[in-house]
Amino acid sequence: MEFNGKLVFFTTTDSIKTVGFLMDNDADEKDVVVFVHGMGGSFAKDGILRGAKMLLQRRISFFTFNTRGAEIVKSFKNARGDKYYIMGTAFERFEDSARDIKGALNYLESMGYERFHLMGHSTGCQKILYYAWKRRDRRVKTLIFLSPSEDYPIWAAYLGEETDKAIEIAQNMVDRGRGDELHYFLYRRTGEIWSASRFLSFMDRDRPEASLFNYESDLPILSRVKLPMLFFFGGADTTLMHDVDYYRDIIKKSYRGEKLEIVKIPRGDHSFHGYEEAVFEKTAEFIKMSDKND
Questions:
Q1: Quick one: three-class SS letters along the chain?
Q2: Are 95 and 238 in the same domain?
Q3: Of the four listed, 58, 73, 198, 203, which is most buried by Cβ atoms within 10 Å?
């Protein structure tokens, strides 16, 4: 499968070099959707790129890029190329995602774009909401959430009675200055690679990542962000602990802005495989309506 676009390299606001792919609308329109991938993901998702063609038909550009949480373990280097970092999902610091997103927006602004629409998938949903809340970037006009589930209940169900022990070990490692080290207890039981700090980031509900979409709360951070929001849930998403109506009701009660839409794709899985075009067609419609009201 081939896609027309431009591969670009840019730097985050703390001078880490990363990569993105820009699909320009070849028009004078200044809208661009900025896609933020989830855990273990990357900028190169063929279904997402295929769906993004629906945006181009509506004269909206699309940009997808690697955050420092791309893939599981990944090396990055600084802008000068003389220093390397080991990051990826397993070792990233969630709060640094704001540096990645702002770097992407700064690059796109330098290319002439003016209206930014942040689209997050899975953990990317937490990242775009965190960015909107912390940075209050007026260039951001809408937020689009694809499968905004939360990791705590998934891992609690997975680990069962060992959940509290895993959290306690992670906290103990962090307290001893070993938060960036591999959480061997988890690795031995699950085979998955996580640093203690990264695991604690989505399992300690006092931390931003774990609280942003804690559906046992009234979503206090979401309630403070009044941008237009579009949510997509898949009826066949196995990461959801409840039916879609459960999440819809909580979001509706929490949202304090003026434009909210929540869409259920009945047979959609966590990544909406086979339904990407429908997702992006609805996204384009939402953006165009939001632009009229801006």
A1: CCCCCEEEEEECCCCEEEEEEEECCCCCCCEEEEEECCCCCCCCCHHHHHHHHHHHHCCCEEEEECCCCCCCCEEEEECCCCCEEEECCCCCCHHHHHHHHHHHHHHHHHCCCCEEEEEEECHHHHHHHHHHHHHCCCCEEEEEEECCCCHHHHHHHHHHHHHHHHHHHHHHHHHCCCCCCECHHHHHHHCCCCEHHHHHHHHCCCCHHHHHCCCCCCCHHHHHCCCCEEEEEECCCCCCCCCHHHHHHHHHHHCCCCCEEEEEECCCCCCCCCCHHHHHHHHHHHHHHHHHHC
A2: yes
A3: 198
**Residue 59: Cβ within 10 Å count:** 15
Kindly state whether residue 217 falls inside one of the protein's structural domains: no
Residues 118 and 192 in one domain: no
Name the residue range of residue 167's domain: 151-212
Look at residue 27 in the predicted model and tell me its pLDDT. 77
Which pLDDT does position 45 carry in this prediction?
A: 93
CATH number at residue 90: 3.40.50.1820
Using alpha carbons, list the distances in angstroms from residue 68 to 4, 12, 146, 201: 25, 9, 20, 15
- The C-alpha angle with vertex 209 and arms to 205 and 211, in degrees rounded to 5, equals 40
- For the entire predicted model, the pTM comes to 0.97
The confidence score (pLDDT) of residue 109 equals 97
Q: Same structural domain for residues 181 and 146?
A: no
Based on the domain organization, do 101 and 202 belong to the same domain? no
pLDDT along the chain (294 residues), means of 10: 94 98 90 97 96 96 98 95 94 98 98 97 98 97 97 95 97 98 96 97 96 97 98 97 97 97 98 98 95 72
How confident is the model over 20-31, as pLDDT tens digits? 999 998 878 899
Total domains in the chain come to: 2
